[in-house]
Amino acid sequence: MDRFYCDNLVIRDNSGRQRIFRGINICCKESEISPHKFRKEHNIKKLKNKLLKDGVNLIRFGVTWASIEPEEKRYNAELIAEYVHFVKECEKLGIYVILDMHQDLFTKGPKSGDGAPKWALDKEIKLKREFLIWAEGYFYMDGVQQAFYDFWGNKNGIQDKFIETWKYYAACFNECSNIIGMDWLNEPYVHKNGRIIFTELISNIFNIVFGVRYNFLSCFQSVNDKAGFIGMALKMLRAVKSPKNIKRLLETMDNKENFDKAVNGLEKYTADFNKNYYEPFIEKLCKNAILKDTASLFEHNYFSNLGIPFQIDFRENSIYSPHAYDIFVDSPLYNKYSSNGRIASILEHIRENQINMNVPVIMGEWGGGAAGSHWVRHVDYIMNILEEYQWSSIYWNYDAEREKLKGTFDRPYPVAICGNIKKIKTDTKSRSFELVWEQDKEFENSNVKNLIFITGKGITELEGKTGLNEIKIEY
Hints:
Largest sheet: 8 strands, parallel
Radius of gyration: 23 Å
Number of helices: 16
Helix content: 25-40%
Strand order of the largest sheet: 9-8-7-6-5-4-11-10
Distance between the termini: 28 Å
Structural class: alpha/beta
Number of strands: 17
Shape: globular
């Protein structure tokens, strides 16, 4: 299969064409799963027709450290062989793969979480059950935040052990030609300041909406984390006072400029982590675990999912793989209150990160799903921005919401272009698609063709001429 290299803001193949990928996430978060069960539940052949019909040519394939190394220095070779088989089945279909070492909340907790094996967690750490949202551990819980503090500080050599696991795991895929690269760690959480960032963000929001700055961090003084969170929630309710003010809060924070203000300045709490903990971590992984002719995919820290500025230095052939969701994505409010204004703010900040680092983007996670249909229009809005920025992207929760997404996700896109893309624009209401590109002279009289995916037709060759080219189609 084609190999790829990074050319400033774009990805090119070995023929020099600008490439864009349409992907989905397939993630096995289980820490204990039999090889037989994995093969049964993650059979790529069953998805074949749907994926190719929708133009999917990339899968971010997530597994957990716990499943790979359930006991220290004992790798689950039989299960890893099934992981390799999955990637090879993708290869047969012409689908590329990104290997993702997935985690949420560091490890499996009482209810939510996945990632590291239990032996990698300090025995003194106590993990607790959340109240409402699975991600609460990131916001205020001591156990989750201590686990990451230990990891980034390499307590008991735990980070070194993680890197050794990656080294072993990556080597298992030496014979697979369809791996674009490694996504080293899903949503890396900061080494400290997590609770401060969360409470400061909420304080900023309440100040913007009600003109009063509350010290929500003080709620956690001299009490345990859950009691502190309850105190914070009560303080927020007293500040809101009425349903009318709840509506005011939601409408105010639907505004792009207001959301910009809410996250402005929070990078002072993440900059040290980015530079002095995360950047060296990525460098060590590149030295130890990267496969030949593959890229290093680095995400931004967890809180930069909100649009907090992010920047690190990195090696050549690296790809920035951010995540972006509306703040209500994992709640019942997502359908009614997912906000185009907020997501525009987040994506604009990610674009600024990209330009500052001069690196290609493959959006590693975006999307979501819920009851109702409003959120599908939100997804359509996001896809229009992805087209504007010429980003490859990988949808989360795609299969579960497939029927609702029909007509939005199923749109044409340029797969391989002999030169530089100038414009991509889709109108899902009129079912029209426009593509403008500048074709390089080097492709004159060449057998290398432009490729675009057209809904209902699949990948189609497209003739071009040296200079500016434009096509408009209905699909």
